[in-house]
Amino acid sequence: MTALLDIRGLKAEIDGRQILNGLDLTVNKGEIHAIMGPNGAGKSTLSYVLSGKPGYEITGGEVFFNGEDLLAMDPDERAAKGLFLAFQYPLEIPGVATLTFLRTALNAQRKKRGEEELSSPDVLKRVRDLAKQLSIDPEMLKRPLNVGFSGGEKKRNETLQMALLEPKLCVLDETDSGLDIDALRIVADGVNRLRAADRGMIVITHYQRLLDYIVPDVVHVLSAGRIVKTGGKELALELEATGYAQYQSEAA
Amino acid sequence: MNAEIRAVKTAAEIGLADLFAAVRKDLPGGSSTEAIRSDAFDRFAAQGLPHSRVEAWKYTDLRRLVRDAKPLASRPDAAAKTAAGGAGAVFAGLDVRRLLIVDGAFVPELSDLAALEAGVAIRATVEALAAEEMVLPLGMAGTDPVAALNTALAGDGVVITVAAGAVVARPIHLVFVTTSAAPAAMFTRSRLELGNGASLTLIETHEGPDQSDYQVNAALQVDVGDKASLDHIKITSEGAAALHIATLEASIGARANYREFGFTTGGAVVRNQLFLRLAGEGSIASVHQASLLSGRQHADTTLTVDHAAAGSQSREVFKAVVDDEARAVFQGRITVQPGAQQTDARMMARALLLSDEAVANCKPELEIFADDVQCGHGTTTGALDDQLKFYLMARGIAEKEAEALLIEAFVGEVIDAVARDDLREALSSKMLDWLKGRE
Fold it and tell me: Hey, which residues 111-130 in chain A have their CB within 8 Å of chain B?
């Protein structure tokens, strides 16, 4: 069986600084992988390199997404193939209504996949149903994307996008940052509803707390741009108790 | 020592003097009009075509940009009238009263003059001039050399009067269209008198063939009565080789509300100069303008807002999207006269540069002679935000489409200022057409 995501020896740098240092990771359909690690380990860089953010230079390694060369694709192609990055800091886009953005994104992906575009009422219905599940006020959908949204509203909006776009691989970059416990529960419930046999997830987090709500199958420790330890969900609890110090020295 | 140095006349200046000498006897109007024209031409000739050392024309050097004087366009023949029929299509299908000005001449038989609303009168400028009406003299704009040239050579246009209290629901659309394939110049003068408490939406569109080398010098003078309400919308989408200079002079009465909207996409060289005077207490004016430029286009908006009475308010928002090697210019000056206390004025100019060779020159100015006012201005120039673009692309939106969304959002603030839904939607689709042209 072809892995959903297969990262082999990935090296990447930005502004001449090497951040990823020969990273290996395989994610199969139906699996949730947590990636934990200290600040500066390369967690966000991994999410950006996977989604194709400009500015990162790949200096080694390969990434296969459903057997295809992911690194050769533009960011929008990656999205259409089913890769979704939930941003740590979702951006505000004044002048672009949230609903317009959602419809444009969904239909752009469908068009690229050769599927029929959905009518505005169809999109609206889907969005409204999902908004309800995520306790998003429908009025918010008329407002410019993320403008004036609270931290919790932005993360719920990311989760709404993810649910609407139905990706094959979800990469959640520190989704818990800036969330109070209630917002965290709503977002985690939204993510858990997306768990499916044909979908994989990478949950990047600094804290174990999120993993109480989104329970992973595998936990990896990332340090200095490499996976230095892999274990089951109990590894997260261990890390909570011992901290990252031992892995930082190990990597150094 | 203070030597007056006058440069040698350019070919265009000599050509304009020859043109005026040749046609002055044939221009519409009686002897008093002729005196006004003659006086205006002298004012032009004394200054010549403005150049970069003239502050108001700093970025639009007409001595360099205008190579020659074109002959006056001939009055439209049957073929020209047929060609003009489809003009003003941007508002096609909307319930507007279309008045056609073809090659500089008002054409009643192509215009909708049926069932005029009570209090509305529409005449050709030539008719008003023949009756020796004082259509031509300008106020604030009078010292500008190009406006003076318009006074000297004005041929035709439309004179509209709306009686006090008349609320005109159906917009009037002045469709200016050039059909001439041969090089030609058009000097039009129009005038709107809006009585106290009256209300009107006036649209102007300007267009012409891409292959034709023509020059437009259009002037509109507007008198907004006390408590009157005017929406003025001007769309400049001239042909690719055209020179378009438009002068707008408006005087705004007490507690009147004036909303100006401008949208420029076409023309090789475009200059929109606006002279607005908030003449009455508590008057309100807003100016929203957008220029979408590509190729080697050059578009200049130069705006003077004169707060001459107490408690007046003005808002100016100018946005330019500049691609390729095009240049956008915005000069905005707010003046507050000594008696104009409690003036509230704010001006913002923003330019979005889509290529490394694109240029934007923004120069906002404040001149304040009163001590109890609130005035502010700002200007920004930048490229599309890469972070925002990546966010959109990461959701599956292709690069060009992501850029279009961001440009649309940037210009949207200006288009949103158009109050009527039908006009706003027509303008949005015109903007989308421009964006499609980029792909």
Answer: 112
ipTM of the prediction: 0.95
Please give the structure tokens belonging to residue B155.
Answer: 């041929």
If phi > 0 it is left, if psi is from -120 to 50 it is alpha, else beta; for residue A178 that is left
B388 CB within 8 Å of a chain A CB: yes
Q: Three-state DSSP class for A55?
A: coil
Tell me, yes or no, if B387 comes closer than 8 A to chain A by beta carbon: yes
Question: Which residue of chain A is at minimal alpha-carbon distance from B404?
Answer: A96
Ramachandran bin of B18, using left for φ above 0, alpha for ψ from -120 to 50, beta for the remaining angles: alpha
Query: What is the C-alpha separation between A207 and A186, in angstroms, rounded?
Result: 18
Kindly give the pairing relationship between strand B313-322 and strand B284-293.
Answer: parallel
DSSP secondary structure, B35-88, as one string: HHHHHHHHHHHHH-S--TTSGGGTT--HHHH--SPPPBPPPP-HHHHHHHTT--
Q: Which of A93, A96, A105 sits opposite B396 (nearest CB)?
A: A105
> For residue range A98-119, what is the model confidence (pLDDT) as tens digits?
999 999 999 999 999 999 999 9
Q: List all residues 6 or more positions away from B361 whose beta carbon is below 8 Å from its beta carbon.
A: B58, B59, B327, B328, B329, B330, B331
Domain boundaries, chain A: 5-251
Looking at the domain that runs over A5-251, which CATH code has it been given? 3.40.50.300
Locate all alpha helices (DSSP H) within B344-420, ordered by sequence. 386-393, 399-415
Query: Is there a contact between B99 and B172 (Cβ–Cβ < 8 Å)?
Result: yes
- The SS3 assignment for B326 reads coil
Q: Using an 8 Å CB-CB cutoff, list chain A residues near B399.
A: 74, 76
Q: CA end-to-end span of chain A, whole Å?
A: 36
pLDDT digits (tens, 9 = 90+) for A24-47: 999 999 999 999 998 889 999 999
Closest in A79, A95, A144 to B396, CB measured: A79
Q: Which helix (H) or strand (E) holds B428?
A: helix B421-438
Q: Where are the domains of chain B?
A: 11-280, 385-439
Residue-wise pLDDT for A56-97, tens only, equals 999 999 999 999 999 999 999 999 999 999 999 999 998 899
Distance CA B156, CA B159 (A): 9
- Looking at chain A, which residue has its C-alpha nearest residue B385? A93
B409: contact with A, CB 8 A cutoff: yes
- Cα B367 to chain centroid distance, Å, stands at 23
